[in-house]
Amino acid sequence: MAKRRHVFISHHHADDARVTSLTNMLRRNALEIRNSSIRAKPANAEKLRKGLIAERTLKRLLRMKMSWASTVVVVIGKNTHKRPWVNWEIEMANRLGKRIVGVYEHGGTENDIPPALDKYGDAVVAWNSKNIIGAIEGRCDPQETPTGVERDTRVGSRGCAA
Prior knowledge:
It contains six helices and five strands, in the order βαβααβαβαβα.
């Protein structure tokens, strides 16, 4: 029987397919993810792009969806660090006391890590189901490069050794 975790997946909407890949990979490895993040349908994405949804409305919706989750997972893709909403979501997760885990998508680099994730992230892991699950569940707090090599030696950081 698969374990179930309630998470909010922070991502650039151009990376929606990676969110699906991530949840499918974790499901195959006995972790069912209940994702409360916003996955904008084309019509809503267009409204967002045109600024037709009030910022305070969007922030309230994101806070409500995030409050339900135990962990915020940040998909680190090309240019994630340039997305102001991703940084805002990470800062809000920190204020809400959520566990924050960054996951590099294929092609993501250390330069793509949002500043708020570097500041508040509990773990940053490569696209590796064992380490992602360990980080989501709080069993380990690695700081990895996209290839899974340790990227920094934070005080108190727990690697994901077996």
